[in-house]
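Hello,

I think I submitted the 2M8 job twice by accident. Can you confirm which output corresponds to this input? Input:
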Amino acid sequence: MEALDKQAIDILTDNDRGGYTIPTAGLYPYQWNWDSAFAALGFSTFDLPRAWQEIETLLTAQWDNGMVPHIVFHQPDEGYFPGPEVWGGKGPIASSGISQPPLVATFARKIFHRDEALGQEKLKAIYPALVKWHRWYMECRAESGVVASTHPWESGRDNAPDWDEASDAIDISNVGEYQRRDTSHVDASMRPTKLDYDRYLSLLYLGRDCGWDEKVIEQTSPFRVADPSLHFTLLRGHRDLAEIGKLLGEDVSEIDGWISTLEEGCKQIWNSEISAFDSVNLRNGKFAGSLSNASFLCWYAGIESPEMVGHLERILGNGHYIVPSYDPAGEKYDAMRYWRGPVWAIMNALIGWGLEEQGHVTLARAVRQQTAGLISNYGFAEYFNPDNGTPAGGGHFTWTAAVWLSWSL
Ligand code: 2M8
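Support: Only one job matched these inputs. Its output is below.
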């Protein structure tokens, strides 16, 4: 294990670009939002000041309206598309125009416990930015009481089957020619399709062309999908933010209100037809019918569900590595294609922590052991095939290394 600890530390160090960490060289050459939360957690196991710096750097990209972007383009890099000039972000640093699952408050609280004196000082400094970001989420994404994704990239689960039906409404006639870069780094069979990318770009252009005006996006975008990854991570994030606020002697009544709203909102993403948390297209009320790894983030958000325990036991019993990003029994299951099947160590960590906190100790242990087994047998890959463990996507991956180092935090 010591050799793997060292490898994980080397990955974080190699991917460190000075104050921020890239997910992996080549494929993802910038700072990504939720990847950085994991990077911070990883760094906190061997370099605490560097861990806080990761979060601080991310927050320097916060927009005036409170949004913390999903990609921060610190230095130009030809190897990624779409880059800063395509996005036309409105923040103080070149960035994308959408956010990502808000893990920072939760992870900052974990990091705080490693040195509470330093932690308190750091939390005090970042608290206002975190409140502003969470308020932006409530005002610009949670108008229906449930947290909506305005772009598949915002949820973090780019090509999940969750978006298939809602994406049919996206007009791609304006997209034109463009050159993808991802498929020059990774085999196309493990990445989203051309149609997926056309749709991603159409939504990007819609946001950019209205100057990232959230009201216009809410009123005109064909795509607004309530999503368990954003809903559950924000609910959990609010809980930790409230604890941070209390620690700092702040009035947290506004945050408590957000928690109640999102607890109530969980009912809206419960699909009784499949007895699971699911995504719902807010434009027509249709459920996606997708049991995904985000469905299993309920425990992380402090929400109990015997049915979700049943699903996890079934998938485990069928001999798959857990937790696949889409139900292996589902018709759209694709074991190697990104968010349509593969296992992701980061999602496993969130799910495993949630299970443990809610007292599902045996399942939590199974998720943890399998994740550790995948990494030790197949390396620090971006994701893994649930049927046989084959590593896929990018290698030398920051958040996989971070999960290895920080699971016990
Ligand atoms: C993937 O997404 C980016 C776009 O944001 C991409 O494919 O170019 C996703 O897995 C996302 O969740 C992740 O944050 C990002 C970097 O690891 O890669």
